[in-house]
């Protein structure tokens, strides 16, 4: 019955990898559009028009945060830092841009940014999983990582020992 409540299974980490890749790709695409397509200056001006505080700082943070944060999720490198930045960006979008428009996206609502904020927060809380650069680095430098045996409790080790 332990498998119903434990989250150290390989399948869990495979799903976390899939979620990181999918959500990271979305953020990279949106960030790339803001940096290389629209231009950071356009984002800054948009933030100014929306009344977002410190538009020069928030515009650059938004554009580069989505691009770099998304790439960090895809790589599983500095994953929690990337997820933290993306969570802040999505909460900002929720509060400053979408909150007054209801839930549904077709009316400018917050459903999309709410889901992206929730997934980013989940990754921040859970970590990147064992299939990540972070896990490899942690294992290599004595941080434990999330390798196959890293999450075993003393009870699990005693049970395995017989």
UniProtKB/TrEMBL annotation:
UniProt biased composition (Basic and acidic residues): 148-162
A Pfam family the protein falls into: DoxX
InterPro entries xrefs: DoxX, DoxX-like_oxidoreductase
Spans through the membrane: 12-32, 67-97, 109-127
Cellular location(s): Cell membrane
Region (Disordered): 143-162
Entry keyword set: Cell membrane, Membrane, Transmembrane, Transmembrane helix
Bilayer topology: Multi-pass membrane protein
Chief subcellular location: membrane
Family as reported in the entry's similarity comment: Belongs to the DoxX family.
Protein name (Swiss-Prot/TrEMBL): DoxX family protein
Species for this entry: Streptomonospora wellingtoniae
């Amino acid at each position: 019955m332990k498998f119903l409540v434990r989250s150290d299974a390989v399948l869990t980490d495979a799903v976390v990898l899939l979620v990181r890749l999918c959500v990271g790709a979305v953020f990279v695409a949106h960030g790339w559009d803001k940096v290389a397509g629209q231009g950071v200056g356009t984002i800054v001006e948009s933030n100014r028009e929306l009344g977002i505080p410190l538009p020069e700082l928030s515009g650059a943070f938004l554009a580069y945060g989505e691009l770099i944060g998304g790439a960090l999720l895809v790589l599983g490198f500095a994953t929690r830092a990337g997820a933290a930045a993306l969570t802040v960006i999505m909460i900002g979008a929720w509060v400053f841009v979408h909150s007054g428009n209801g839930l549904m996206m077709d009316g400018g609502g917050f459903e999309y940014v709410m889901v992206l904020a929730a997934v980013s927060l989940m990754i921040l809380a859970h970590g990147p999983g064992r299939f990540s650069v972070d896990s490899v680095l942690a294992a290599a430098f004595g941080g434990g990582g999330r390798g196959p045996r890293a999450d075993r409790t003393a009870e699990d080790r005693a049970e395995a020992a017989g």
